C-alpha cells in the first residue's frame, strides 16, 4: 500500500456538449443517462482522476480490498461484539501491510506518508470506527513513538505496533483539560535514585479521559505529563508537557499495579472503538521510556533539550503529531461524500406528488428545493477534496524532507492549514451528513440505509484532534501574528498585547500567491462590482478581499489593548467572533484556490468544464451563505446579492443532470453504498 505511482488519466480528449446547454432540456435521471451515453463513463473516470489526486493508486488498492459489504458497521452488534469485530478487521489490515506506509523505512515501514493518510481516508467509506481505531493504533500511538521517540523506542516498539503484537493508545486528554494541553495535570517525576519516572494523577481531574483503546485493548499508553526533575544540587523543576511510554495492562488484559482503567461505555457513535479512562497511582517506568527526540533526562536527573524555549519545544513536539489531524480532516471529507452520494441516488429514484400531465410523480431531485439541499454541498465536497489533496501532499513533502532541509516557516503554515481544513471539513461533514439524512426522509433515519450511522459516527470529528473553535482561532492567530515565533503559547492577553505592538504593515498575507491565481486576478477588475461574477478572478478577489478586510479590522480592534485603560484579555475576548471569522475566511479562500488549481491542472476538457460549474456553485453558495457580511461591508451590492441567489438556482438547474455523474466520480466501492431504500425502488 505504499505506492505513489501516477496512473495515466483515463483520456484527455473526451468532449461533451456544453453542460449548461444540455441541462436546460433534461431534468430527469433517464434523460441524463441518455444524454451522456458512453461519454458519461469517461467523464466519471476523468473526474475521479482529478479527485483521487497524487495517491490514486493507493485509493484504487483500498477500493479493491474494501469492496465488501461485511465491512459496514452493523448496529445490531453489542458493544463487545462491535469492538471485537473492529479489532479483527485491524488484524486483516495489518496482514495486508496496511500500516507500513506510515512508518519510516529505517523502522520497518515504507515511509510513504501521503499513501498512509490516503489509505486511512478511504476507510471512511467503510466504517468510521475502523478508521478511528486504526488511526489511534498506527497514527496516534505509533506516530508518537515514531516522531517523538528515538532509535531505542523505534527498535523496541515500531515493528510490533505495525503487526499489532503491541496495541497502544494515545493518552493526552484529561477530564480537566482537553483543548489546553499545556495545563495537563499528570506528572512524571524523575527519581535519580532508581533512574525511573513516577507517573501520577495528582487529582481526579488529572484522569486521562476518552482515550481510544484505553477501555479494553491497549497494553501501552503514550502518556503526556508534566516532566519534573532536578539535576545534582538543584531543586525539582517542571519542564512542561512531555510524552512517556507507560505499560498499562499485562498480556491477559489486567491493569498493571498502580494503573486503574475504566470504560467510557456507550457513546454517540463509533461503537467499535473502546474509549476509556486511566488513573495513575505513582506508576514507575524506566528513564528510557521518555520519548526523547526533543528533550532528555540524564541518569543524574539533568534535563537537556536542543530547543531552549519551553513554548517552542512544546509546540514543536505537538507539530510533529499533525498527521492525526490531517487524517481526521481527510476522513470527514470521505464520510460527507458517501452520505451525499447515497442521498443523491435516493433523490433520483424517490418520487413525490403528481407532475401535471404526467402519469408518474415527480422525482424529488427535480424540485429546486431539493437540488439546493444537495448540490451546493456536493460542490463544497469537491472543493474540500481538492484542498485535502494539497494538504496531504504538503504534509508528505514537509515530513519526508531530511532534518537538514526542515523549514520552520513552512511547518507553521502547514500546521495552520491543517487546523483550518480540519475544522472546515469536519463542520462540513456534520452539516452535510445531517442534510443528507433529511433529504432521504423517513428512510434516511433507518440504519439499514447507513446515513444515520454515519451521522452518529462523524459527530465527534468536530471535537477530537482539536476542537474546531479552538483550531479556527489558532488559524486566525497565526495569520494575524504573521507566524511570529514568540507568540506561540502566549496567553490570550499576552498574544493580544503582541499584536497591538506590531507595526501595521506586519499584518499582511505572507503566503506567496500561486501563479494560476495571480493570472486570474489580473484578468479581473479590481472593482469587483465592475467584473462579471462568473469571472474566476472576481470570485477569488471577493474571497481575498473578505479575508484582508477581516484581518485589517480585527488587528485594529485588537490594538485597543495598548490603551492603558483596557484590559488585554477583555479586548481579545470582545473580538473573538471577529477572530474566528478571520480563521474561517482564510480557510475558505485557501479551499477555493486549491479547487481552482485542480481545475487548471485537469487535462480533460469535459471534466474541467464540469468542474468549473461545480466550482461556480461552491463560490455562489459560499457568497450566499455570507451575504450579510459582504453587503454590510459593501463588498457586494444589493443588485449583485440578488444575482447571487438567482445564480445558485441556475447552477443547481444546470448541474441537476450531472448529479449522478458527480457522486459516481467519488469512486466509493459499490458494496459499501448499499441502501435498501434505493435498491427497492
Ligand atoms: C470519542 C472520543 C475519542 C477521543 N479520543 C482521544 C484519544 O484517543 N486521546 C486523547 O488524548 N484524547 C481523545 N479525545 C479527547 C478529545 O481530543 C477532546 O475531547 C478534545 O480535545 C476537546 O477537549 P474537551 O473535551 O476538554 O473540550 P473543551 O476544551 O473543554 O471544550 C468545550 C467547549 O468549550 C469551547 N472552548 C474551549 N476553549 C475555548 C476558547 N479558548 N475559546 C472559545 N471556546 C472554547 C470549545 O469550543 C467547546 O465547545 C477523544 C474524545 C472523544 C469524544
From TrEMBL:
Biased composition (Polar residues): 1-14, 21-30
Keywords noted in UniProt: FAD, Fatty acid metabolism, Flavoprotein, Lipid metabolism, Oxidoreductase, Peroxisome
Annotated EC: 1.3.3.6
Classification via Gene3D superfamilies: Acyl-CoA dehydrogenase/oxidase, N-terminal domain (1.10.540.10), Butyryl-CoA Dehydrogenase, subunit A, domain 2 (2.40.110.10), Butyryl-CoA Dehydrogenase, subunit A, domain 3 (1.20.140.10)
Segments for region (Disordered): 1-37
Annotated compartments: Peroxisome
UniProt domain Acyl-CoA oxidase/dehydrogenase middle: residue ranges: 169-283
Descriptive protein name: acyl-CoA oxidase
Protein source organism: Gordonia otitidis (strain DSM 44809 / CCUG 52243 / JCM 12355 / NBRC 100426 / IFM 10032)
Lineage summary: Bacteria, Bacillati, Actinomycetota, Actinomycetes, Mycobacteriales
Amino acid at each position: 500500500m505504499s505506492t505513489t505511482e501516477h496512473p495515466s488519466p483515463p483520456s484527455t480528449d473526451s468532449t461533451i456538449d456544453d453542460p449548461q446547454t444540455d441541462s436546460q432540456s433534461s431534468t430527469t435521471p433517464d434523460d441524463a443517462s441518455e444524454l451522456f451515453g458512453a461519454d458519461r463513463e469517461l467523464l466519471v473516470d476523468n473526474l475521479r482522476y482529478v479527485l483521487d489526486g497524487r495517491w490514486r493508486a493507493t485509493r484504487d488498492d483500498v477500493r479493491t480490498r474494501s469492496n465488501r459489504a461485511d465491512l459496514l458497521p452493523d448496529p445490531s452488534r453489542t458493544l463487545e461484539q462491535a469492538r471485537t469485530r473492529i479489532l479483527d478487521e485491524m488484524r486483516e489490515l495489518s496482514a495486508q501491510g496496511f500500516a507500513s506506509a506510515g512508518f519510516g523505512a529505517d523502522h520497518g515501514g515504507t515511509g510513504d506518508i501521503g499513501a498512509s493518510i490516503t489509505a486511512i481516508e478511504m476507510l471512511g467509506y467503510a466504517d468510521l470506527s475502523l478508521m478511528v481505531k486504526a488511526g489511534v493504533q498506527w497514527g496516534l500511538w505509533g506516530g508518537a513513538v515514531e516522531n517523538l521517540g528515538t532509535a531505542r523506542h523505534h527498535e523496541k516498539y515500531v515493528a510490533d505496533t505495525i503487526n499489532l503484537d503491541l496495541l497502544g493508545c494515545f493518552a493526552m486528554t484529561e477530564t480537566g483539560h482537553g483543548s489546553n494541553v499545556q495545563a495537563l495535570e499528570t506528572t512524571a517525576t524523575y527519581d535519580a535514585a532508581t533512574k525511573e519516572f513516577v507517573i501520577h494523577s495528582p487529582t481526579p481531574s488529572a484522569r486521562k479521559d476518552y482515550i481510544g483503546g484505553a477501555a479494553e485493548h491497549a497494553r501501552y499508553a503514550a502518556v503526556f505529563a508534566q516532566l519534573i526533575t532536578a539535576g545534582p544540587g538543584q531543586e525539582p523543576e517542571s519542564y512542561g508537557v512531555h510524552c512517556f511510554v507507560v505499560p498499562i495492562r499485562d498480556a491477559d488484559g489486567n491493569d498493571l499495579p498502580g494503573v486503574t482503567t475504566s470504560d467510557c461505555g456507550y457513546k454517540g457513535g463509533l461503537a467499535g472503538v473502546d474509549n476509556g479512562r486511566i488513573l495513575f497511582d505513582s506508576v514507575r517506568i524506566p528513564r528510557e521510556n521518555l520519548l526523547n527526540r526533543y528533550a532528555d533526562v540524564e541518569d543524574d536527573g539533568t534535563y537537556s533539550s536542543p530547543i531552549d524555549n519551553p513554548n517552542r519545544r512544546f509546540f514543536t513536539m505537538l507539530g510533529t503529531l499533525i498527521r492525526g489531524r490531517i487524517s481526521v480532516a481527510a476522513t470527514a471529507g470521505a464520510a460527507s461524500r458517501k452520505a451525499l452520494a447515497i442521498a443523491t441516488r435516493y433523490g433520483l429514484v424517490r418520487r413525490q406528488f403528481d407532475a401535471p400531465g404526467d402519469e408518474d410523480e415527480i422525482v424529488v431531485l427535480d424540485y429546486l428545493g431539493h437540488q439546493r439541499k444537495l448540490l451546493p454541498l456536493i460542490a463544497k465536497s469537491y472543493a474540500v477534496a481538492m484542498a485535502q489533496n494539497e494538504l496531504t501532499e504538503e504534509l508528505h513533502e514537509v515530513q519526508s524532507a531530511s532534518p537538514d532541509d526542515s523549514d520552520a516557516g513552512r511547518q507553521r503554515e502547514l500546521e495552520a492549514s491543517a487546523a483550518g481544513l480540519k475544522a472546515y471539513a469536519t463542520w462540513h461533514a456534520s452539516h452535510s451528513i445531517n442534510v443528507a439524512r433529511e433529504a432521504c426522509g423517513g428512510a434516511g433515519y433507518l440504519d439499514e440505509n447507513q446515513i444515520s450511522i454515519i451521522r452518529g459516527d462523524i459527530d465527534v470529528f468536530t471535537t477530537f484532534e482539536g476542537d474546531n473553535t479552538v483550531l479556527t482561532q489558532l488559524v486566525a492567530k497565526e495569520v494575524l501574528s504573521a507566524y511570529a515565533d514568540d507568540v506561540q503559547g502566549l496567553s490570550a492577553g499576552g498574544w493580544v498585547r503582541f499584536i497591538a505592538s506590531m507595526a501595521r504593515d506586519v499584518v499582511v498575507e505572507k503566503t506567496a500567491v500561486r501563479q494560476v491565481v495571480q493570472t486570474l486576478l489580473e484578468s479581473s477588475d479590481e472593482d469587483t462590482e465592475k467584473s462579471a461574477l462568473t469571472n474566476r478572478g472576481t470570485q477569488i478577489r471577493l474571497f481575498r478581499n473578505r479575508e484582508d478586510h477581516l484581518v485589517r479590522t480585527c488587528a485594529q480592534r485588537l490594538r485597543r489593548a495598548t490603551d492603558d485603560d483596557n484590559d488585554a484579555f477583555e479586548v481579545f475576548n470582545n473580538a473573538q467572533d471577529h477572530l474566528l471569522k478571520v480563521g474561517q475566511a482564510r480557510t475558505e479562500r485557501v479551499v477555493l484556490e486549491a479547487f481552482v488549481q485542480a481545475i487548471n491542472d485537469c487535462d480533460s476538457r469535459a471534466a474541467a468544464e464540469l468542474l468549473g460549474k461545480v466550482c461556480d456553485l461552491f463560490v455562489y453558495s459560499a457568497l450566499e451563505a455570507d451575504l450579510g457580511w459582504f453587503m454590510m461591508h459593501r463588498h457586494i451590492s444589493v443588485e449583485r446579492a440578488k444575482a447571487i441567489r438567482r445564480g445558485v438556482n441556475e447552477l443547481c438547474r444546470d448541474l441537476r443532470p450531472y448529479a449522478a455523474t458527480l457522486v459516481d466520480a467519488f469512486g466509493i466501492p459499490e458494496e459499501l453504498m448499499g441502501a435498501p431504500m434505493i435498491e427497492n425502488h
